[in-house]
Amino acid sequence: MAENVLYADLNLPEPTRPRILTVPDVQGSGCTYAEVKVKAQDTNAAENCKSSGKSRCSRKHVATLVVVILILVLAVYLIITYGPTAGSQQVSTTNIPEEALGCPPAWKKHGRKCYFFFPQRKPKHWDASRAECTAMESDLVVIDSREELTYLLSQTRYNYYLLGLRYSPEEQKWKWINDVEHDPAMFDINGHHRDYLCTVIGFREVHTAPCDGSSTTQNMCEKAARISKGLQKQS
Predict the structure, then answer these.
(1) Phi, psi dihedral angles at 121 (to 5 degrees)
(2) Alpha-carbon dihedral of residues 128, 190, 177, 93, nearest 10 degrees?
(3) How far apart are CA 145 and CA 186, in angstroms?
(4) Spatial contact of 164 and 127, defined as CB atoms under 8 Å apart
(5) Quick check: 226 and 93 in contact, CB under 8 A?
(6) How many other C-beta atoms are found inside a 10 Å radius of the C-beta of residue 104?
(7) 169 φ, ψ to 5°?
């Protein structure tokens, strides 16, 4: 019987063992035989490719990590060198000897603080007085110790100077501008506070005063002492 046979030889790569697929002839149907040969791909080459890919991936991760670390180091360096805040500058002077610290002209130095005593006597609201200190990169005086209290009493014997201490009707407490409550053991506050909610120091006492200002009250500011320019040039 005549047969019309068509052979197709396909070589397909596959990462498996070789296989031969044969389709048998159906008698009298004139069918086509197809023989498919699938060749296995070199497994060693595939593993080498994968291994090479992992190596390239690892190198990329390492390079990225190095770049990130360098950026972080550079950022920290720039912050430390060029961007110190006023608070950090004040903290940095705590380990410096007092004799190495100085104050601007017209300011009086005591310990680690600088004080400015305004000569004018004119009614001025407590908020305006504080703003006047802020304009000079300072603030109203906060008494932190008995030593500071003794110094200020000696400097204000003949005038009253405004303090950064006010009475809070809501909390019914005397509080400093740094939100610290006044310690009665430090000193007594003379006078009533029904209408006088601010305080002044002078004539060897701390006394209540009107917050809207008084013709007998002068302003007083304080700030942290800094390293003197002469020592900065030497260092």
Answers:
(1) -120, 110
(2) 110
(3) 8
(4) no
(5) yes
(6) 14
(7) -60, -35
Q: Tokens 């048998």 map to which residue? A: 24
- In terms of DSSP H, where are the helices of 13-115? 43-82, 86-92
pLDDT tens for 149-183 read 999 999 999 999 999 999 999 999 999 999 999 99
What confidence category does residue 195 fall into, taking pLDDT thresholds of 50, 70 and 90?
confident
AA identity, residue 188: D
CA–CA separation, 89 vs 93, rounded Å?
7
Element (H, E) at 232: helix 229-234
Global confidence as pTM: 0.59
- For 198, the token pair is 């601010």
C-alpha distances in Å from residue 194, one per residue of 64, 176, 197, 227:
67, 18, 7, 43
Above 50 in pLDDT, residue 42?
no
How far apart are alpha carbons 178 and 139 in whole angstroms?
10
